Amino acid sequence: GGQTRPLASVADAPALARMWDAEHLDDGPPALLDHDTLVQRLAAAVREGDGLYRTEQIGQSVEGRSINHVWFGRGPAHILLWSQMHGDEPTATSALLDILHLVARHRSEPSFERMLDRLTLHLVPMLNPDGAARFQRRNAQGIDINRDALLLQTPEGVALKALRDRLKPSLGFNLHNQNWRTSAGKAGPASISLLAAAFDEARTETPGRLLAKRTCTVIRDALESLVPGQVGRYDDEFEVRAFGDNLTKWGTPVVLIETGPAAGDKADQALVKLNVVAILSAIDALATGRVENADAARYASLPVNESNLFTVLIRNASIVTGTGISPFTGDIGLGSSRIVRRSGPEATRTVVQAFRIEDLGDLRTYVGLETIDATGLFVVANAGWKERGEVRIDDWKTFKPERPLASGVAMDLALLREAAPGMYRVERIIRAERNLGSAR
Question: SS3 of 26, please?
Fold first, then answer.
């Protein structure tokens, strides 16, 4: 981390974002943060906190990895935050580690001191370490821990329930990632979506659920100063098996924070930052009592999540399928997901962003994180060409790539512009995979 500068107020979201920029610890892509690194980072946080942090093991995973609880503060109100209940949803784990680092550095400043005086904060980063090791949603039993609140057949779920019952927190934060197709309404990416979890079919509003809604409003206002229009509302339908719904029923209202898509080469880091700002803003509002003045209607008016987003949206292209039919005009929507690969004798882990064609045709009702105007361009399966090169194609009907261009397929795409009859210039190649980094 960089130079420590006092923060005038935790309520100042842009200042919090700048603090994160200057001081966060970079462990590389969140998807590659494994259990061993987590344990090392927690030990480092305890050393840096110098008496501030206490830790315990509250259980172990199916395969024997520790499930860790770290807590700090001396206030009467207990707040519980847990991350990576789904092993392939890692963003908030990195954010919780950053929060431990930042609180240790700023603990003597008034706004942080107030937080420590009035609240006791409990963090369970990486509830599902076996899933994280495989970068998969479910645990080693193949169970979705977030659907195990009632049967309690997972040791991870048992550990979370036991901690909740012991602490009886006044609020919980359930921290997840959502699909990169998720849009805030129809207009743009839902980089963060919020939910005040319901505890019955009627979505009854109790004082606890109202507190969760007001906390969501605080988070909305903080984040919209950084990413206007990119905060959505998660579907609040009651799910009888889920932890968020049941914790609310057991007396701990829950705020769900779902991290979604963001544009740019540094999207994963930007999303960690949004989580840090969201969580610290909410905690400050709880510590100051400012949350009581938040208008719950601002939560209710958030645009509801839809699946209206492509990572790349190619518009107005001449599409060449390579199946012997003539080019036709249309749009191509590419979705993407993160995949962790192991390679080489060291089994080095690398995270890639994998793209595939999700739809083609008239996609005017959709939006893209990146939109390419392909008017005058031909989009074809790339046949080993290089950008800026020239290729000869006499007849598109006889052009036969290795695989036809179609929905559901992952392939490199080439965007070609006709330079002369039968001659085309390669304007751009869109790779089916993009390397986002390797484990250190």
Answer: coil
Sign of the CA dihedral 295, 296, 300, 306? Answer: positive
pLDDT at 206 over 90: yes
| pLDDT single digits (tens) 154-194 | 999 999 999 999 999 999 999 999 999 999 999 999 999 99
3-state secondary structure of 408: coil
Tokens representing 148 are 């195990």
Residue showing tokens 């304007």: 427
- Indicate the helix (H) or strand (E) that contains 107: none
Encode pLDDT of 47-66 as tens digits.
999 999 999 999 999 999 99
The dihedral built from the CA positions of residue 70, 76, 80 and 81, taken in this order, carries a sign that is negative
Residues 6+ apart with CB under 8 A from 183: 189, 190, 232, 305, 306, 307, 308, 309, 367
Pair 262, 270: CB distance under 8 Å: yes
Q: Judge contact between 290 and 218, C-beta under 8 A.
A: yes
